[in-house]
User: What shape does this take?
Amino acid sequence: MSKPVIVLNELTKSYGKHRGIENISFTVEQGEVFGFIGPNGAGKSTTIRTLMGLLKPSNGGASIFGLDCSREPARIAKDVGYLPSENCYYNNMKVKEMLFYTAELYGVNAHSRMEELAERLNLDLSRRIGDLSLGNKKKVGIVSALLPSPKLLIMDEPTSGLDPLIQQAFYDILKEENKRGVTIFLSSHVLSEVQRLCDRVAILREGKLISVQSMKELRENGYKKISLTAKSAIPEDFFSVPGTANLEWDKSKTSVSFMFSGPVMMIMNQLHRLELEDILIEEPSLEEVFLHYYE
Amino acid sequence: MLIFRFEWKRKRKYILIWAATLAVCIFSMTPVYYGMIETVETLPVEFTQGGFFETVGISLELLMEPLGMYSFLTGFFMVAGGIFGMHLGLSLHTEECTGNTAEYLYTKPCGRKQIYMGKLLCALAGICVTGIFYLATSFLTMTLFRFGFPIGEFFLVAGSFILISLFFALLGLMVGIFHPNNRSPLLTAGLVVFVEYCITSFSRTVNIRAIGFLSPFSFFSPAEIHNAGTYSWDYMLWYLLLLFGFALLAYWKILKRDIALAV
Assistant: This one.
């Protein structure tokens, strides 16, 4: 059995009146690609910044490689490549200078790795960071995180600002890294990205952990999206059966779509009472599944 | 040393410009001021009887000595040195926060202790360079224009410039760590140094020595150096306590604090 690389234990960070995160607990196993999803302001970055030792927890704790994140961030950082959500690089430096500085801070010689990654991500190493576009600055961050060949990659909104071609190159790099045993922890609100890359996902909302599920579980949680059209108007309370959510009616009240989770026969018996013109039962998209969690 | 080398590279130009400017100023201003007075009688009555020189730590007796006018000028250059030191110390930390680079630096394997030491060393190196420039140029100026000055007293007066700069550099480092989101470090440095200078002037005007403990400018009065031939031991003890206090508080805080993002 693989050992956990990241362990969060009742992790809490409060900022006085502002909401932080509350009692977040989960583990990330070695070699896993773990997604961390939530709407803006859910607490994703706060959790990640606490993991990186930038913020001191108000309560609870977190560890990476068995080391306490708030006590030994420097030891942990040796094996972690971190990509922050904001661009945070020295604008007056050239890309190459900054990446060499990163390599020096990690104590590695990464010249060939730098060249290789820059080529794959189409990054010009000779330009001044302050002159780069948002997307190119993001590439600098990605190369900087991957440069020391870390055992763990922590990435906060890694693809924001990247064009689709570079996103694809980035996904390929991540898959290669994962193949050679690197654990990946990434936050995102781009669900297709999570769907494509992750093995498991934690869902965060208003600073609280809603659920941790494998992608398979998430899709197989029993939710079905049902869209139907009846010959006559359907009474509004017709679908007030347990397990029904996200009802969306049309104006004439003859068409409705909703999410359902529960015994199939229960909803079938209910539908049987309607004179149906059309019906579509499908697997909901991840967006729809998550919307359900967020509401 | 890596952080120090990086910080030094970033600050080198700024430090050298300050050092060169101060050196040029002391070299060009000293002979001009010496030329303005030959005897006390040549000074306006308001200056000699109004207590003006006493508020800047100079006595009329000292003013007529070979080191007098140099000490008078150094009193003002200490203000400039203080602003330089405090701005250097402050900006070493505030620039990381306001430039949004703190998240990069503090997530690297160097750790907070090394970051602190690197920045502290950079501040100390900056003070050393400026101090050496000031000391060397002062010595050259005095040798050229007022040969025969007492060497020991000269080094104490010129050393005051370095000690004042050091004091404000460490104060700046500490304040920068406590309030890293300061977007106007030069204004802050200017205000703090000016207020400190006013406190010293006030303590000398009202002749209450205890007030002088609130400002480092009081610790290095040229008149007292001239009379005693050394710095006052009680002021020096307090000065050293404050220096260690600033350095320790800053170290404690950098280990404990959250790394803030710029707002």
Summary: DSSP finds ten helices and 14 strands in chain A. The longest helix of chain A spans residues 164-179. Chain A touches chain B through 27 residues (CB under 8 Å).
